[in-house]
């Protein structure tokens, strides 16, 4: 039977709850009983026959030995034992008996298998033999329970010379009988196996015929079968392979008006309509085919029964659908509307885009509900704001979405302005048979309507319209209009209710998209306001940058370019965890902190360490305030030195930079990747590598190379492919990379920074070693003056000599050798004095009585900027002067 597990027949064969199981158990039990009885009978009969044979055998041996020649003389001799014992033992061995005993008239043994018993009196009733009568009896003797035959030994004169007793133990007799037990047991087993096999085959066949059911189940099934056939309100017929009616229930008899003796007759003889009769005997699979039977419409279903192992026949079911057709039509209509509402819930609001949500509303209504649909939204709603309705004025609606069955529809296209007076929140319906479309358009609340368009609408067959305001929280956001044309039924009251339900769902989606659009615009505005609008001027790098916010949500990606003293430039790229205003605000705080930390001119790994502490402190502060959001971030901080052409980089959970050499070769410098900011516990490591002049450094956030459906390794491979090849400017590189890697709607922010490196000409750099002697200052002044004169910077000589005099003097007095001086002529003139001491001088005001303390004050007056930076071997005090500008009189 269908649905039964594969081992169901086997279980039914051995289950006593089934008819087949009961028959099997009964047959096996009966056979076991018969086999056991037969085996017992065979054993008992065998032992009985063995005992009878033992009696006859012992009696025969005793008679033969008693009448053997020489036995009487031997008994009458002086030593009967010597003569008879050998003969008795020989007879015992040859005849396979247990004992041959000869005794005299007094019962004294002359022979015995056990010599110790010779000379002792016989045990048992031997007196009867002395009287001349032989006998065979079973009694317990010296050898145990035995079968003994005792016969007299007569003399020629008739007197008794003695007796002969021959015995066999019962155990020996039984052992002979038991030899047949294995044979009997084997025969019993074979008989049992044959009988079990036969019973199994019989039970299996019975199990198939009863389908593994028990007697109770079969009785209940028959009762239910009979009750269902008579009680069910659906006609059931079974037509055999011979085209005869095998079974018909009461409902089938009523629906087809069958005669009482219909069962067993050919279907063609039942007086049915020829089409109905041909269908019933066709043997095909039919589903809900409608046939007319008199005044009834019957839904007929035919299924063959042999598809699931049954006999070759056909089951026919009949339903009277005459009274259900009207109800079915309404149910189908309601089902279609429910499915359309379900589809609308699934399709409307899939994105947080106002225009897309409006288009989804128009698309879902076509063609299941209307032949055309339009959605008009107020301009403020499209921008993310709430519409403000002027008192008594018209709310400017703009056509946002159009969908129609015909491509040549006459409706206004997307972008057209359709005025609307928001005086109602309920739907309105207009039909051309009831009103004039040209005039009733204004009754709907529309303004700026073109009468020529209304005429084309009428000519093309649009005859019915439902207009539903899209409103939430009492505010009208727009208008949804549904049109029907041609042969479509006009909108009725149910259609109006459905349109309102559809518009209500869409309004929620539009309002959510409007709110998100506003928040997204605010976040983008905040994000862009916090990013650098204009990059600072510097000559070390030619920089191009791009920032693209995510299509849905703004993250905290940022970049920065920070000029550092000594013709060096810091490049920063970072990414804050999360999206929205919180991420943008956190990004602003981190960018400001990076600027502040960079003013101290630390190494990249030291700066990331300070930034890590700041992020951890922000997280702790926000956790105390109950804010679940964290301010974790990743960051890349690089310092490029235009003098040496080296770049030092440190990473905090950020993708490493990519370097493109002037010949188009792409390299990925090995930079240790630290933990993201805010985790703490591990120091950051910096790596330094040389960058050939004209190479491009590419810094980016993970949104460029990683997105849903593409892992980061694939993205990095695409980035390398986009960068390889011809030499391009940084601007061209940005455009090519974004075009190659980014989709139309990125799901994460992207910050991209491309910098082409430059190095200072050796003629722009001067460097001298200074002895730790105050007299060495004069030599420094002379060298500096000559170097400036050679480059046409005579006007800067006085201030530069003064600055270097003070800085070198401080280094000689308070610093530690070696001392060096370096001049850099880039955009400005930079003076650097280095020594191996870590003590930094401080600017202060000297009292009138102080002999020193005015050196740094003079440096600060003559230099545009000055400061101190620490190196691995000490410190560098630097100053920067603007070249070409008139000096102010500061003294």
From TrEMBL:
Identify the residues that the record assigns to the GAF domain, covering every copy: 353-520
Membrane-protein topology: Multi-pass membrane protein
Q: Which intervals hold domain PPM-type phosphatase? A: 538-757
Lineage: superkingdom: Bacteria
Segments crossing the lipid bilayer: 20-44, 181-202
- Gene Ontology cellular component? plasma membrane
Recorded protein name is GAF domain-containing protein
């Amino acid at each position: 039977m269908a649905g039964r597990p594969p081992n169901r027949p086997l279980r039914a064969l051995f289950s006593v709850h089934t008819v087949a199981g009961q028959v099997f158990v009964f047959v096996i039990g009966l056979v076991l009983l018969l086999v056991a009885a037969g085996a017992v009978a065979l054993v008992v009969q065998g032992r009985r026959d063995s005992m009878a044979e033992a009696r006859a055998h012992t009696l025969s041996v005793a008679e033969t030995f008693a009448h053997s020649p020489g036995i009487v003389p031997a008994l009458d001799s002086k030593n009967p034992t010597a003569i008879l014992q050998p003969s008795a033992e020989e007879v015992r061995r040859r005849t396979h008996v247990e004992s041959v005993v000869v005794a005299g008239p007094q019962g004294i043994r002359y022979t015995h298998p056990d010599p110790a018993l010779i000379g002792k009196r016989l045990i048992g009733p031997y007196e009867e033999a002395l009287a001349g009568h032989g006998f065979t009896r079973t009694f317990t003797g010296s050898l145990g329970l035995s079968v003994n035959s005792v016969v007299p030994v007569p003399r020629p004169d008739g007197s008794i010379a003695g007796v002969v007793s021959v015995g066999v133990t019962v155990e020996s007799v039984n052992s002979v009988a038991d030899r047949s037990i294995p044979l009997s047991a084997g025969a019993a087993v074979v008989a049992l196996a044959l009988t079990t096999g036969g019973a199994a085959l019989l039970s299996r066949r019975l199990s198939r015929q009863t389908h593994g059911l028990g007697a109770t189940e079969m009785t209940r099934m028959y009762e239910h079968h009979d009750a269902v056939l008579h009680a069910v309100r659906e006609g059931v017929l079974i037509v055999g392979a011979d085209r005869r009616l095998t079974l018909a229930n009461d409902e089938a008899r009523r629906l087809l008006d069958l005669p009482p003796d219909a069962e067993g007759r050919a279907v063609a003889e039942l007086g049915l309509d020829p089409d109905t009769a041909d269908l019933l005997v066709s043997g095909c699979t039919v589903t809900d085919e409608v046939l007319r039977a008199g005044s009834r419409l019957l839904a007929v279903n035919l299924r063959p029964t042999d598809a699931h192992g049954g006999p070759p026949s056909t089951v026919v079911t009949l339903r009277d659908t005459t009274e259900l057709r009207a109800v079915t039509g309404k149910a189908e209509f309601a089902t279609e509307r429910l499915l359309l509402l379900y589809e609308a819930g699934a399709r409307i609001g899939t994105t947080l885009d106002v225009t897309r949500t409006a288009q989804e509303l128009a698309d879902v209504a076509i063609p299941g509900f209307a032949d055309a649909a339009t959605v008009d939204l107020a301009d403020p709603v499209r921008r993310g704001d709430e519409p403000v309705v002027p008192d008594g004025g018209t709310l400017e609606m703009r056509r946002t979405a159009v969908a129609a069955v015909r491509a040549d529809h006459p409706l206004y296209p997307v972008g057209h302005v359709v005025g609307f007076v928001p005086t109602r929140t309920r739907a309105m319906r207009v039909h051309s048979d009831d009103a004039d479309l040209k005039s009733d358009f204004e009754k709907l609340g529309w303004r700026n309507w073109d009468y020529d368009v209304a005429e084309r609408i009428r000519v093309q067959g649009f005859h019915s319209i439902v207009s539903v305001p899209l409103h939430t929280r009492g505010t009208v956001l727009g208008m949804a209009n549904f049109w029907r044309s041609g042969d479509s039924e006009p909108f009725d009251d149910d259609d109006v209710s459905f349109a309102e339900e559809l518009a209500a769902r869409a309004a929620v989606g539009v309002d959510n998209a409007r709110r998100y659009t506003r928040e997204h615009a605010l976040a983008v505005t905040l994000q862009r306001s916090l990013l650098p609008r204009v990059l600072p001027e510097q000559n070390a790098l030619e920089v191009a940058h791009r920032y693209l916010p995510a299509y849905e949500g703004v993250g905290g990606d940022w970049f920065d370019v920070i000029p550092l003293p000594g013709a060096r430039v810091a490049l920063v790229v970072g990414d804050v965890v999360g999206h929205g205003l919180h991420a943008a605000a956190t990004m602003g705080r981190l960018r400001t902190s990076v600027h502040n930390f960079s003013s101290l001119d630390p190494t990249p790994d030291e700066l990331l360490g300070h930034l890590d502490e700041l992020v951890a402190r922000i997280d702790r502060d926000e956790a105390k305030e109950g804010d679940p959001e964290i301010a974790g971030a990743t960051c890349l901080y690089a310092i490029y030195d235009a003098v040496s052409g080296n770049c030092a980089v440190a990473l905090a959970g950020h993708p490493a930079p990519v370097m493109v050499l002037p010949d188009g070769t792409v390299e990925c410098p090995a930079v240790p990747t630290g933990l993201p900011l805010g985790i703490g516990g591990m120091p950051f490591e910096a790596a330094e590598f040389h960058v050939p002049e004209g190479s491009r450094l590419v810094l980016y956030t993970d949104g460029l190379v990683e997105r849903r459906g593409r892992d980061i390794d694939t993205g990095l491979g695409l980035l390398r492919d986009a960068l390889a090849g011809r030499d391009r400017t940084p601007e061209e590189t940005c455009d090519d990379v974004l075009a190659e890697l980014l989709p139309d709607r990125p799901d994460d922010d992207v910050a991209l920074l491309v910098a082409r490196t430059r190095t200072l000409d050796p003629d722009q750099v001067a460097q001298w070693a200074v002895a730790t002697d105050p007299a060495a200052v004069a030599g420094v002044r002379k060298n500096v003056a000559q170097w400036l004169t050679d480059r046409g910077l005579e006007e800067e000589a006085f201030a530069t000599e003064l600055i270097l005099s003070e800085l070198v003097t401080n280094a000689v007095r308070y610093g530690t050798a070696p001392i060096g001086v370096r001049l850099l002529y880039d955009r400005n003139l930079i003076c650097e004095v280095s020594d191996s001491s870590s003590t930094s001088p401080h600017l202060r005001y000297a009292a009138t009585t102080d002999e020193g303390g005015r050196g740094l004050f003079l440096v600060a007056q003559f230099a545009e900027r000055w400061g101190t930076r620490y190196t691995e071997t000490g410190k560098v005090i630097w100053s920067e002067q603007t070249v070409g500008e008139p000096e102010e009189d500061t003294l």
